[in-house]
# Entry
Amino acid sequence: MTNEEPNEKQTKKHQTNLVSAGHAKSIDLEQINGSGFDFYSANSDYIGFTMVNKNHEIVNYRNSSTVRIWYNEQLETFPLHWHNSLEIVLPISDCYYALTGETTNRIQEGEIFFIPPGTLHSVYPPPGSNGVRFVYLLDLSVMTHLKAYAGIQPLLSTPFLLTKENSPDIYKDIFDLLMQMQVEYFRKNLYSELTVYSLLMTMFVKLGTDYSNKLGTADIRAGKQRKYLKQFNDLLAYIDDHYMDALTLESMASLMGFTKFHFSRLFKNYTGYTFCDYLNYRRIKATEELLPHVELPITEIAMQVGFSSISTFNRLFRVYKKCSPSEYRSKLSVHTFKKG
# Structure
């Protein structure tokens, strides 16, 4: 996403009714950022177009950083692509659309849409829109070495929409953190990148805690939550490192010190997945980085990520991606699209 050249919108005060998103008052960017705020020069290093190699967008972060935030008011449709960044879309005025898989997501003013890394998607405004939205592109590789990061991977397994209605306990906090991020970014403060990531980590803590609380069973809430959170965070980190191995429900239950039945129940409560479904999801996700390499046979890719049967791989890939591995690969093309 990118900015248009500065024009009369640059100094316009944007106010949007956000009653549906839970705000008593409208989003007033002048109140948040200050009057005459410059949303443009922070991204003046942008070269004007983006290379998409096999549908993989090579994100141009600002000045060799790991962050790019766009104040976006464009009418263009951005074609199907994916990237290694977490993308967050927050419309300020008018709605915005995101096509993910076979689902068209309408993101209303003030709602927050998360597109996990590796997700094929297309984004576009409604016809004739004069709307504005913030688009955040954040490289999560700087955080993945943290053991606790594995605990939020189930949350980031699919795109999701955060609203006041579906997350009343944390919506305002997440909205405020995103507003702080864009203020730091566009002001180009000396430590803006570091500040953005500190805010992002705070956001993940809130999202992860809320997610775990919603999934938690009564006995977890009664006093075992902290213990189980640590155990399952460690387990998800282990799966990240060993998903290509012959992991079984029995071996993971033994590793955790639980009976198979107790482990199955707790794993589903904690992650929202059965163990088998989560392991398959993690393996399929690993193929997203391998399928663009056309020199690798699909059978080899299946074996490399841990599937012992190509037929099982093909069947599960279709379940998760709504197409076959070869069809997914055929969608990949080399092109560029202009973002400015």
About this structure: Residues 1-24, 333-340 have pLDDT under 50 and may be disordered. The chain is about 40% helix and 20% strand. The first strand starts at residue 15 and ends at 16.
